[in-house]
Amino acid sequence: MNETTVGGMKFVLDLSQPLYEQVLAQVRSSIAKGEIALGEKIPSVREMAQGLKINPNTVMRAYQELERDQLTETRRGQGTFITTDSEKVRTIRYRLAEEAVDEFLAKLGSLGFTASEVAAILRSKGGEAR
Amino acid sequence: MNETTVGGMKFVLDLSQPLYEQVLAQVRSSIAKGEIALGEKIPSVREMAQGLKINPNTVMRAYQELERDQLTETRRGQGTFITTDSEKVRTIRYRLAEEAVDEFLAKLGSLGFTASEVAAILRSKGGEAR
DNA sequence: TAAGTGTATTATATCACTTAATACACATAG
DNA sequence: CTATGTGTATTAAGTGATATAATACACTTA
């Protein structure tokens, strides 16, 4: 596993997905899990780019999407900071969860599984989400 | 909704995903749900391409993946037919379901949801998968 | 003033996807 | 045998998203 740590956050990047989406998802995950404190500064665009060995523009793209979701606030000349509003984090977290659920149910629905079948499958694997 | 019907199967294509994947998924869905009978012939590559207004090569790509999964058998000069082996269909159906479950649990796990939380969310929306 | 922030711009390269145009091998109806 | 309809292969071209590179500018702080 090609694992890198930048600013206290772990990153695993591959080529199966756009890099900016992976960076976005993994920073967001750190925020959602509370692995990074509210109000805390995250690495600068250039730092992150160097640490991950990718282009600053690619990091920028991820950072801008974080700000669009109001998970971060950027202060010109200072850096990018996690929001101090815990309600924002909660909201985004549940929004993303709901999207995942909808997509999941749609996919299983298209395969002809009923709700109770889905529940049964999940019960047999449910131990995996901590 | 840009809906088209070809060979008794409904198709909705958009630009959010590769066309060949959408065709693949929607034919597969028809098979999994039993909307199309085992052994039945599906539209020829050219027919399907014309009906969906896409390139024959794109349809080919979808059809070849169906055959690789052994959901179809192709007979040169005759056409493409749904497998007569119901066990094959069952197998693929569960494989796809399992993949979807794993992906889903991984995603919610990365958002810091526990198994019981996932179960709770699903219970509140479970009515949607038939 | 210098160094470190976010941000914008322009250019280039690469890759997946899609289309287009042909051509070939095979099966079947006439 | 011929015509038509199958799957299949090949080559070429175009498009769009992604990523990199190089540079510049506005702002903050030590």
Descriptive report:
2 copies of one chain form a homodimer. In chain A, helix 1 crosses helix 3 and helix 2 crosses helix 3 (56-68). Helix content of chain A is 55%, strand content 14%. The first copy, chain A, has 130 residues and is of the alpha+beta class. Chain A is built from 5 helices and 5 strands; from the N terminus they run E-E-H-E-H-H-E-E-H-H. In chain A, a hairpin with a 2-residue loop joins strand 1 and strand 2 (9-12). In chain A, the strands form 2 sheets. A 3-stranded antiparallel beta sheet of chain A has the order 3-5-4, covered by helices on one side. In chain A, strands 1-2 form a two-stranded antiparallel sheet. The first copy, chain A, folds into 2 domains: 3-82, Winged helix-like DNA-binding domain superfamily/Winged helix DNA-binding domain (Arc Repressor Mutant, subunit A, Orthogonal Bundle), CATH 1.10.10; 86-128. Chain A has helices spanning 19-32, 45-52, 56-68, 86-110, 115-125; strands spanning 3-6, 9-12, 41-42, 72-75, 79-82. The longest helix of chain A has 25 residues, at 86-110. The interface between A and B is medium-sized, with 34 and 34 residues. Chain A binds a DNA duplex (30 and 30 nucleotides) through residues 18-20, 44-46, 54-58, 60-61, 63-64, 74-80.
